[in-house]
Amino acid sequence: MRGEVNIDELGPDEWARFREIRLRSLAEAPLAFGTTLAEAEAIPPATWPGQLAAAATFVARLGDDPADVGVVRLAPDRSDAGVGWLISMWVAPEARGRGVGDALVRTVLERARALGHHRVCLDVADMNLDAVLLYARHGFRATGETGTHRPPRQHVREHRREVQLA
Questions:
Q1: 92-101, pLDDT tens digit by residue?
Q2: Is 116 left (phi over 0), alpha (psi -120 to 50) or beta?
Q3: Do 33 and 49 meet the contact criterion of CB atoms below 8 Å apart?
């Protein structure tokens, strides 16, 4: 059953909220991200606000429930100001199939357009078919570029997808 999905953009002062959902995402889906739970847990508290300043960060809630059930970020490309990166995407298991992922992706694409980006890229694990299908629904197409996570998770293969923005 779908309900109202509310999206909040987090500012640097909301770093604890971001840290909480980021750690939850890494614990629940450890093979989906390049960062490990242990690496994220070791990040000093003073560093988290800078992460929010460096990339637009959005969290999702369902209806009036204050609990965050999804997260996504839009990071600028380091060498091309017209390109943004959809990163850190995750939806809590209890919220999957309720439109949260679609709302988060739409939010990132809207922000990318507002920033003047002409393209948004992402990397997704090949085995994460639900995520691949989500991104395909929003126009993301495989580029042919592939890679793996760093050791010891180099067995996780991923591929790059991108969408051109009008």
A1: 999 999 999 9
A2: left
A3: no
Domain 5-164 bears CATH identifier 3.40.630.30 = yes
Per-residue CA distances from 33 to 27, 52, 58, 74, 82 (Å): 10, 18, 17, 15, 24
The reply to whether the predicted model has a pTM over 0.70 is: yes
Residues 6+ apart with CB under 8 A from 152: none
| Domain boundaries of the chain, sorted by first residue | 5-164
Q: Using CA atoms in the order 24, 25, 28, 34, what is the torsion angle rounded to 10 degrees?
A: -130
115, HSE (Cβ side, Cα atoms, 13 Å)? 22
The residue behind tokens 């790059």 is: 160
Q: Which of the four pLDDT bands, split at 50, 70 and 90, describes residue 1?
A: very low
Whole-number Cα distances in Å, 87 to 33, 35, 58, 63, 115:
9, 11, 11, 24, 16
